[in-house]
Amino acid sequence: MTNELIEKIEYSKRVLFDNFNTEFTVMFSGGRDSCVLKHLITSTGLKATYYFCMSGLNHDMVLNFIKTYHADTVFVKPQIDIRDQIFTNNCVPTIKNKFCCATVEKSYKSFHDTTKYHVIVTGQRQQSNGSKPNIENLTHVTTRDNDVPVLAPLRDWTLNDVKEYVYIHNIHLQPSYELYGKSLGCAFCPRQSATTRKLMTKHHPEVTERMKNICRALYARNDSLRNAHHTFDDFWHWVYTCTNYHF
């Protein structure tokens, strides 16, 4: 282990110890950063509860991985099912209207009545993996409107730091990292690349079929969609090929 990573680990633990009250509320996605964060918190002995918020379009691979290797995780169901979200907004999620992310956030906040005095911990890092922009204003400790501290102990870690920590501690990752080199995240996320979407369809056709059925029902009830796309196949091609990214 490099001296630089040792120093980052120690600083991350200091952030956790210095801001602990009675219990941590940890946002857990099942991804590589989350698994490292969970291992790090566990190594401190500090009490924490881990929450995974379901979007309605999660891959079975992710769900089964969490249930098998992180059975202590609390699954949070969305307040509104993804099908109803799409019907309410009369469209699929887009870059400009990521209503699914807003619903996930609301689902997390619904737990704040019981965890409002717990410090929240996330696995966010300032440096991007490439699929998302860097989080320039990310700090180790921020405070939300209700004065609850939000920690990002991995703020200064690089992707190589995370990979080295995984290797040294032999942390089990979800199979998608071996198959695709990354976590797939939510199906049909507007940030998802065309390559990832093709991989998802090939290996997880059940998720694609679920979304296709939702889109078929949306198309049947939406006059504007039928005017813009003369057939459902045209509309599905528009959704599937990611041309909805910037709308």
How does this model look, in words?
49% of the residues lie in helices and 9% in strands. The relative contact order is 0.16. By secondary structure, the protein is α/β, with parallel strands linked by helices. The chain contains twelve helices and six strands. The chain has a single domain, classed as HUPs (Rossmann fold, 3-Layer(aba) Sandwich), CATH 3.40.50.620. The model has no long low-confidence stretch (mean pLDDT 83). The protein has a six-stranded mixed beta sheet, with helices on both faces. It has helices at residues 3-18, 32-44, 60-69, 82-89, 99-109, 112-115, 159-169, 176-180, 194-203, 205-221, 223-228, 232-240; strands at residues 24-27, 48-53, 74-76, 119-121, 141-143, 149-151.
| % residues in beta strands | 5-15%
- The count of strands amounts to 6
Report the oligomer: single chain
Q: How helical, in percent, are the residues?
A: 40-55%
Query: How many distinct domains?
Result: 1
CATH superfamily annotation? HUPs
Q: Largest sheet, described in full? A: 6 strands, mixed
What is the overall silhouette? globular
CATH C-level category: Alpha Beta
- Gap from first CA to last CA: 45 Å
CATH topology: Rossmann fold
**How many helix segments?**
12
Kindly provide the radius of gyration, computed on alpha-carbon positions and rounded to a whole number of angstroms: 19 Å
Q: What structural class results from the helix and strand content?
A: alpha/beta
Low-confidence segments, ≥5 residues, pLDDT <50?
none
Q: What is the arithmetic mean of pLDDT? A: 83
Q: In which order are the strands of the major sheet placed?
A: 3-2-1-4-6-5
The helix-strand sequence is HEHEHEHHHEEEHHHHHH
